[in-house]
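Figure 3 (text version): structure tokens given as input.
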């Protein structure tokens, strides 16, 4: 039996990945601390379909707790770790940089040490497009110089990549660091733009747009993201950094219009000053992902938004109770 530990497995990306792994015959251990960054009830809802499976195990705990991790690894006999757990978000990291360092850097180091001690040979690390910062060159390629990181969150993700390389170099750990570009879809975190905008438009409340609305993002649908992760799991060897994106940019105001059309409602837009830490564009060059992983995104933003809005409307009563 193939055994995998998925940290942050109750979250948006993590729960989708756990489902896919379980369906493909893996014995999945999900580790999550159910922190209050957003309502833990939503994370527990994410796992409902998995809890009855005899190939799925949920463990509640914190990656900062070294003795706890020691017990988990000793019992688990994992062949692979997929490390998704992190404090997320650019803007909150500016308010709480020490917490982000503690969770994202020290927590990652704890896991790498646990892998070393217990002979786990394969490690997938969830990095972020935010490491590119204000990169003047687009699209962003994995070998671009990372000289303009502008948020503590992005800095912690880059630090995680470097630690992963160190453990590859010193101990032969096989590591793929996957730089995700704004993943969205059913179960997306409620503070992220697509989810937040959809909820506000649906409820007839003002949508905050920071800056003039011309900022552009590369949005990756969850199914494409999970396909990229699964392909990385199949191929992880050596040390590689790989972009996972759609390789297309969408202006912020166009995103609002797409959500309006899917909901059949007009948005009331409130323009606000630009936020510190925000970058003007993210844009993935996925040439390496295509060559190394056989990765190919298949869900254009128009279809992805339609699917997200359908899920949102079907789940609205549950979301409203959890979010208030």
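Below: residues designed for each position.
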């Amino acid at each position: 039996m193939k055994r995998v530990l998925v940290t942050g497995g109750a979250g948006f990306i993590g729960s989708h990945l756990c489902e896919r792994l379980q369906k493909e015959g893996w014995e999945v251990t999900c580790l999550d601390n159910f922190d209050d960054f957003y309502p833990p009830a939503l994370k527990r809802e994410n796992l409902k379909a998995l809890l009855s499976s005899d190939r799925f195990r949920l463990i509640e705990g914190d990656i900062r707790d070294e003795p706890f991790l020691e017990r988990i690894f000793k019992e688990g006999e994992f062949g692979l770790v997929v490390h998704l757990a992190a404090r997320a978000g650019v803007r909150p990291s500016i308010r709480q940089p020490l917490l982000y360092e503690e969770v994202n850097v020290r927590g990652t180091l704890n896991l790498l040490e646990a892998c070393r001690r217990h002979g786990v040979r394969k490690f997938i690390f969830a990095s972020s497009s935010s490491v590119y910062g204000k990169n003047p060159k687009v699209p962003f390629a994995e070998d671009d110089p990372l000289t303009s990181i502008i948020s503590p969150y992005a800095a912690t993700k880059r630090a995680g990549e470097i630690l992963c390389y160190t453990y590859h170099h010193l101990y032969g750990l096989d590591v793929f660091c996957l730089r995700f570009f704004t993943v969205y879809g059913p179960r997306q975190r409620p503070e992220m733009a697509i989810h937040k905008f959809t909820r506000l438009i649906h409820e007839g409340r003002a949508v905050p747009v920071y800056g003039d609305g011309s900022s552009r993002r590369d949005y990756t649908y969850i199914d494409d993201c999970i396909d990229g992760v699964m392909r990385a799991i199949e191929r992880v060897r050596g040390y590689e950094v790989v972009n996972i994106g759609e390789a297309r940019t969408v202006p912020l105001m166009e995103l609002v219009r797409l959500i309006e059309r899917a909901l059949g409602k007009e948005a009331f837009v409130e323009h606000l000053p630009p936020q510190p830490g925000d970058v003007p564009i993210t844009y993935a060059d996925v040439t390496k992902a295509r060559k190394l992983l056989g990765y190919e995104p298949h869900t254009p933003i128009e279809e992805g938004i339609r699917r997200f809005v359908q899920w949102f409307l079907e789940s609205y009563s549950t979301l409203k109770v959890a979010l208030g």
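The longest strand covers residues 122-128.
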